[in-house]
Structure formats: C-alpha cells, structure tokens
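Progress note, sequence design subtask.
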C-alpha cells in the first residue's frame, strides 16, 4: 500500500476515535499570520507574527513574556480547545492542508499520528539540538525519533502514588507501599477492617495501564516514522497480561473501585475519602486543586510517595501525560516558528509561574536541578516537598516511551477491555489478547506490516 493510502486510513482513524473533522475557516501559514485574531496583545507590532494554539491556564502570561522579550517575532495565540477539542480542529486543518497554526501544542503520545501525516516539521535543523541538554533522556525521546525532533518538551507527567494520610493512619498503614505486592496487601488490610476502597481502576484512563505495563517490562510498540509501513505490536506479552491480571484481581476482590476518572462522581469520592490512594502524575495536584479537592475537610490530608514497583531491585519510572510545542508544515517561516516553539514556556519567569501555581511540571533541567523547586513546599500536600522527594527523581529516571501512529485507536481498544474487566466479563490475560487481536487487525487494514 502506498504511503498516501496509509495516511488516509490514519486520518479516518482519528476522526472515528473522537477527533472528528469539523467545519472551520481560516488558512494556515501566511494566511493565518495575516488574518488571525489574537487573544493576546501584540507588543512589537512591526515584527512578523507566528500563530500558536495552546490551552494551559497561564498561556496568556507565557505568550506575553515571550513577546516582551522578542523584537524579531511576536506570538499570536489562540486557545481553540483543550486536548481532543484542539485535535478536532488541527486534524481538520491537516486534512484540508490549510487552517493550521504555525505552532501547536500537542501531547507527546499524539505526535506520531501527525508525523506520519506529514503535518509536523523536524525542528532539529532549526536549533532544537542546542537545547537537548536541558531535558532528561526520557523527555527528549518522547519528542524525537533518531536524529529527528518533532516538538519542544514543555510539561511532563512523572508518576507517583497520592494517598490519604488520615486513612492510612486510621487503618494502621505506617508507610506507603513501595511495591505492588505491598499495595495489594494494604488494600486487603483496609477492606478487612471495614475501610474504603484502596484505589480505582478507571476504564477511561488506558494511558495509566500502558504506563504500568511498561513499568513491568512491556514494550507495546516499536515504530520508526522513517519506516512508516512497519510497526511492532506486542500487547499480549507476559508483562502486559500480568499487570492486567493484577488489577483485575483487585477489582474482583473489591479492593479498588471501577469509576471513570475525571468525573464528578470520582472527584466526589476523592473529596469524601472513598479512595485511599490515587495512582497519578505530577500534574495531578493542579488538576485536583482546580476540581476543589483539598480545600475543605480534606485539606492537608494528602501526601505523595514514589510509584510502587513491580521489582524493587529494578525500579522503573514511568510517565502519564505532558505536552510539547510542535511546528506545523503549514508554517510559512518554519525557522521563525521553531524559535517560538523552542522559546515559549522556556524563560525563567514562565517556568516559575507554571510550577509554583501547579500549571505544569517543567521538564527543563535548569529548573529541576534548582534548590528552589526541590525544597518548595506544596500546599496541596500539606507542605510536603513533593517535587524534590518524588516527582523530580521520577522524571530523571524516566527513559521515554515509544508511541504508535494509531495510539488513539489502541487506547480505545484498551479502554474497552478495561471496562470489560470492571464488569467482570473478562480476565486480564483475555483482555490483553483481545487488545492485541484488535490492534493488529486494524494495523494490517491500514497497510502496516506488523512485526
């Protein structure tokens, strides 16, 4: 199958998976620069403009900081939606070959999908490697393939275990579990004493399950965009099955809940002490604070510990989420757009605002190596120095993931099977086999050679 047909199939996948094309006007590149209505104020009006889409709450400040310090270029920013809402519009622009911004915020696990469509620029030729030393190996791997670099890292999601200090104290858990065996044992102890659920297996967070499988030793995908017709798919290997079976066992015993996360029901449970732990990432304190957690009777009750390990003699750090700035192929001046992608949210003032206000977990090592962030007490965790104790070591240990060009489809299939596990309809091994079969079948239908 020709590459054009392969790309067409992947575009259809994005649309079918909820990133559907939507009607819209406006051209990308030069047209966008000439006609865009900027949310922000342009400070140096005679300078050329680079359009950008981004959704973080402090983006206005970040853009203003950039524009104040640059006389050679100005950022014209718009928030067209967060995550999937933005991807709707970006996919429309990619398919139409017009309407995209010069610079776009993307989550790392979505990059491969747009790279194979020819929508993103390799910015290694525009100075990206000059800042490579500012990032961990894992952060850089997530945005690059070989010598090619497709985005500038901004925010990461090194994972940890958030827990309720009051629940742990009430049921005699003197320290957070260091292994997943200890996690299961503590969960059983709390249940036997009539306590709450120990955690939650949300069917709608398949990225968490993928991360835990990788932590166990799984390698879900092998993919190199320079060989766009080939992909390795190993979703039913022993490690993947064992992790799914582990969580299926916790569900079956009633030790963890099955509520979808990021819902009012789930947040109500977190606030009300329904869950003793929350397996999440460094951005979670900001999300929970914004959702009203930690502001009432549960204020000061949360703490965070390193993520439990499958093999404590071989600790593995994993990641959930995080974003980067990519340059689109519709940008008229790609060099100037790369300057913006590499410079946005890279100045000290923007970075400090981000991590102090729980907007981002910065990936810039200049920040992460500073005593200020390591010793910074987070109010959400009752003054715990969570960055230095948990999240920075986790980020520095993260080696990076390999994502597939059909990551959205894979997540949909894994979510389907997690829901089946939660409903008692399938065990972990069966779920892994079902995901493998569905993804391999789909990949072949799209013209991939599956290794």
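Output:
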């Amino acid at each position: 199958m020709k590459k054009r047909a392969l790309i067409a199939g992947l575009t259809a996948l994005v649309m079918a998976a909820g990133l559907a094309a939507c009607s819209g006007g406006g051209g990308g590149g030069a047209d966008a620069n000439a006609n865009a209505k900027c949310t922000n104020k342009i400070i140096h009006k005679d300078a050329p403009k680079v359009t950008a889409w981004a959704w973080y709450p402090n983006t206005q400040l970040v853009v203003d900081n950039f524009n104040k310090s640059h006389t050679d270029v100005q950022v014209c920013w718009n928030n067209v939606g967060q995550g999937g809402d933005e991807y709707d519009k970006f996919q429309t622009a990619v398919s139409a070959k017009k309407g995209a911004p010069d610079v776009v915020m993307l989550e790392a696990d979505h990059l491969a999908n747009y790279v194979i469509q020819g929508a993103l620029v390799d910015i290694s030729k525009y100075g990206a490697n000059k800042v490579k030393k500012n990032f961990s190996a894992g952060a850089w791997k997530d945005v690059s393939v070989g010598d090619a670099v497709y985005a500038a890292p901004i925010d990461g999601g090194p994972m940890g275990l958030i827990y309720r200090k009051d629940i742990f104290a009430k049921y005699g858990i003197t320290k957070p579990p260091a292994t997943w065996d200890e996690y299961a044992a503590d969960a059983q102890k709390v249940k036997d004493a009539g306590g709450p659920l120990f955690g939650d297996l949300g069917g709608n967070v398949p990225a968490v399950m993928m991360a835990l499988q990788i932590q166990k030793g799984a390698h879900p995908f092998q993919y190199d965009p320079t060989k766009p017709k080939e992909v390795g798919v190993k979703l039913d290997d022993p490690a993947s099955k064992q992790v799914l079976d582990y969580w299926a066992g916790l569900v079956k015993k009633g030790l963890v809940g099955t509520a979808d996360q990021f819902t009012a029901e789930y947040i109500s449970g977190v606030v009300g002490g329904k869950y003793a732990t929350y397996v999440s990432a460094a951005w979670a304190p900001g999300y929970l604070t914004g959702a009203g957690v930690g502001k009432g009777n549960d204020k000061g009750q949360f703490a965070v510990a390193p993520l439990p390990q499958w093999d404590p003699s071989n600790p593995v750090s994993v990641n959930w989420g995080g974003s980067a700035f990519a340059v689109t192929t519709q940008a008229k001046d790609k060099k100037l757009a790369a300057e913006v992608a590499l410079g946005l949210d890279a100045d000290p003032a923007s970075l400090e605002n981000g991590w102090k206000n729980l907007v981002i977990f910065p990936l810039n090592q200049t920040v992460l190596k500073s005593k200020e962030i390591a010793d910074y007490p987070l109010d959400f965790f009752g003054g715990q120095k969570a960055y230095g104790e948990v999240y920075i070591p986790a980020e520095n240990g993260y080696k990076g993931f390999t994502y597939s060009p059909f990551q959205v489809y894979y997540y949909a299939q894994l979510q389907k099977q997690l829901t089946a596990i939660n409903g008692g309809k399938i065990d972990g091994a069966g779920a892994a086999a079902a995901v493998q079969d569905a993804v391999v079948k789909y990949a072949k239908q799209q013209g991939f050679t599956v290794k």
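The CA atoms of residues 267 and 343 lie 35 Å apart. Work on this subtask will continue into the next period as scheduled.
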